[in-house]
Every structure is written in structure tokens, then in C-alpha cells.
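Quick one: C-alpha cells for this chain, please?
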Amino acid sequence: MDRTRSIGQERDGAVATVLLNRPEAGNALTADLLERLLRTLDMLEKDESVRVVVLAAAGADFCIGIDPSARRPDRRSPAQDFGRILSDALAPVILRLRDMRRPVIAAAQGRATGAGLGLLAAADIVLAERGALFALDGVESGLAPEGAASWFLPRLIGLSRARALAMTGAAFGAEEAREFGLVWRVVEEGASRPAAAALAQHLAGRAPETLALMKRMFEATTVASLEEQLQVEANVQRRLGRTEDHREAVAALAEGRTPVFRGK
């Protein structure tokens, strides 16, 4: 991996790891980093050989949010537009992460704050090291949550808790994040990337169309009624029941072997 680039990429079979690579700056988000991240994710979405994406970060921290340099007052232009980088650069990344057909696993260490917390929340599964620290700290600078944290967190951890965390800026650890529902599993220090890689390889062995439609199924719950969700499930099962991967799973079970899924 090129250590001079703000976004790194590694491949291990069907698993692609995307790395935030500004460790000296806590992997703070700049417009350039976000543009590179979006291009990388777009490329992986089009690559049929990729079955799982891992989002990780170099250095001590996952991501401290938008680069602090963007927050410095400009005396020549006191009315700065802090929303521009959010709408032009961050929003497309969040939407791409959420809309990817492949499962996205995030591996967090150190600090994951502000928009960095939003990146984690956009993933399908989050693993965090025991010493990881999370916060919606925008309030400390007179700013509000960003990175769609105000959308994800009420759904993941509850409206009351999300509101309190945003208003107080209170930090919380990995075990709390797991209890809240933001983090799936807590791992030891230095183990988040290996654990994410192992989980990704496990998921890469699943039928890709099943995982893709499963993502859509759960996403539909944010807007669907119970009746509509029941129909979503029926439609998904109808489609999956006609796939070659389903027939392979049934045959493998009958023959006492591990199924080999081909995404068909």
C-alpha cells in the first residue's frame, strides 16, 4: 500500500480492505480524502470479484471527524460554510457505504468521533477495540452532529440516548457502544483489523445475492409498515429460492459438504 495516499486499499481474495490513511492527523476527513474514498468504494461496488468490504484506519485512531483545519475562523470571511464539505464530499460517501450490495464491516480503534462516528454507523457490522472511544463532540465547537449520525444513531441506540449524547458531547467506550447497539463485538487492542478480516472471509463464503438482498430487507424496515415488511420478506425469499446458490446449498446439505456459492 502507498503510505503517501490518504486512502489505501488491500485485497485478500474476495475481501477488499479500504484504509483511511492519515494517521498523523487522526485520520481526519478532508475533501480530498473523501473524494478518494468515494472513488474507491464506487470501484469496489462495480467489481464482481469483491464480496465483502472492510473499512479500517491506519494509526492510533479510526477517525476524529472533519479535519479541524476546516473549523478555523477565517477573518476575511467570517460566514464560513461548514456545510459544504458535508453535502459535497461526506454525504456521497455515507450514501455509498449504505447502498453497497456487499456487506461493509468497520474496524475501529482509538477515537471515532463526529463524522468518524457517522462512518462507523453507516457500516453493516462494527467491531471495536476495547480501548476505542466514541463521541458526538460537535457541540464542543458549537456545531451539531454530522455524517448522518443524527439519522443512524436514533435507529441504532434509541432517540433519547442519541439526543443526550449529541447535546452533552459525552464520550463513551467500546463496551458501552456494544451495549447501546452501535458495536457488534469488542475485541482486544490491536485485534480489530484481524478480527474484521476473519469475519469478512467468513461472509465471503456466503451466497452474495442472499447478503445483498438481506441488506435491502433490513433497510426497508426504516420506512415500511409491518404489512409492507412481510411482503418484502416474501419477495426476497421468492427471488432467492430461484437462485443457483440456493440449489447449491440444498445439494451440499444433502451431500454433507460445504456449499460453494458463485453469486448466481
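The chain has ten helices and nine strands.
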